């Protein structure tokens, strides 16, 4: 650890809320807005069964519209808080706060520079989102620390005990002149981690994050890793994901033990307007008492849910229809950011 008691909690630790931003006509969802809203409503219904939901909306009219849709789906609106702020897009995994905690009342909202995934998209409003949430009094007992270094929440996984898992493909794209050692030092210092594990292999067609770890491999309690496998030798992902599986098998815990690995099934190719979409089952969201698992209308959906349930024993498994999300190159985890218990006002 660094010189502080701060640490990056694991996602399975107790949460105060889940944070999302509602899609609207000025976001990239405009062309299929009604379709994607069905996923957001299903997500809101699932989250509020277990804990509060904070919904960022562009204005009061959008908030009222979202409330109408949620009410029709019998969402528990007593567990929903709306916050009006401007935003470019709705991928809050990447523009939302990476929250470190020391104890029940000491938190740090770590605010890395958000560059629209390496300058692919405009991101000025998204980069200011965390400051806006602070000004809106969303948080209790939290300092706001800006870090002038590009990193997205989807690019890192934490086991809550000082280990961070990430991908070289993503971070070398963001920081092409920095070495792995330099980046490891920055990650350790800014996230108060004791070590950084890197994957060199693994990617998904249709993913414009440059191989975020949360589309590929996820820590689970008890020294487990859940990962997206590919058993179709004819698929262009096969060799790369096989190599990633071998890398995961070679990783060791801080105590020198191999991780227990949980390979996820491979969905059949989903193609939209001649474009392969990234249907990853690893992009699930853990909440209090449950895991929300993406479903794509594929025969592998139920098997993926079963395996994720095995890796997260004692939690209810709730499938959320996510096929509309992958049209914009992300899935369930990408549109959400969990907030640790005690951090919200």
TrEMBL record:
Pfam families: PAD_porph (PF04371). It comes from the Bacteria. InterPro entries: Peptidyl-Arg-deiminase_porph. Keywords: Hydrolase. Gene3D superfamilies: L-arginine/glycine Amidinotransferase, Chain A. Transmembrane segments: none annotated. GO terms for molecular function: agmatine deiminase activity; protein-arginine deiminase activity. The keyword Methyltransferase does not apply. GO terms for biological process: putrescine biosynthetic process. This is Agmatine deiminase family protein. It comes from Dyella tabacisoli.
């Amino acid at each position: 650890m660094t010189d502080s008691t701060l640490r990056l909690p694991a996602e399975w630790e107790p949460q105060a809320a889940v944070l999302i931003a509602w899609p609207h006509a000025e976001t990239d969802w405009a062309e299929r807005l009604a379709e994607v809203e069905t996923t957001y409503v299903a997500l809101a219904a699932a989250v509020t069964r277990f804990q509060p939901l904070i919904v960022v909306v562009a204005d009061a009219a959008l908030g009222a519209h979202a409330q109408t849709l949620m009410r029709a789906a019998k969402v528990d609106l007593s567990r929903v808080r709306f916050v009006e702020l401007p935003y470019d897009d709705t991928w809050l995994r990447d523009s939302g706060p990476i929250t470190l905690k020391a104890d029940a009342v000491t938190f740090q909202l770590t605010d890395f520079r958000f560059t629209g995934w390496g300058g692919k998209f405009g991101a000025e409003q998204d980069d200011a989102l965390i400051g806006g949430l602070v000004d809106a009094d969303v948080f209790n007992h939290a300092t706001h620390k800006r870090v002038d270094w590009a990193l997205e929440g989807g690019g890192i996984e934490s086991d809550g005990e000082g280990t961070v898992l990430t991908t070289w493909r993503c971070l070398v794209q963001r920081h092409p002149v920095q070495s792995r050692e330099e980046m490891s030092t920055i990650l350790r210092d800014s996230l108060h981690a004791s070590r950084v594990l890197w994957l060199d292999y693994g990617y998904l067609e249709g993913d414009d994050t440059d191989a975020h770890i949360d589309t590929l491999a996820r820590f689970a309690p008890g020294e487990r890793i859940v990962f997206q496998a590919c058993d179709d030798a004819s698929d262009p992902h096969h060799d790369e994901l096989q190599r990633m599986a071998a890398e995961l098998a070679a990783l060791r815990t801080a105590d020198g033990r191999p991780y227990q690995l949980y390979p996820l099934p491979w969905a059949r190719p989903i193609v939209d307007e001649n474009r392969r979409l990234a249907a990853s089952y690893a992009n699930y969201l853990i909440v209090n008492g449950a895991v929300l698992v993406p479903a794509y209308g594929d025969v592998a959906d139920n098997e993926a849910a079963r395996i994720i349930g095995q890796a997260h024993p004692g939690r209810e498994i709730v499938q959320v229809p996510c096929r509309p999300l992958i049209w914009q190159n992300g899935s369930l985890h990408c549109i959400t950011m969990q907030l640790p218990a005690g951090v919200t006002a």
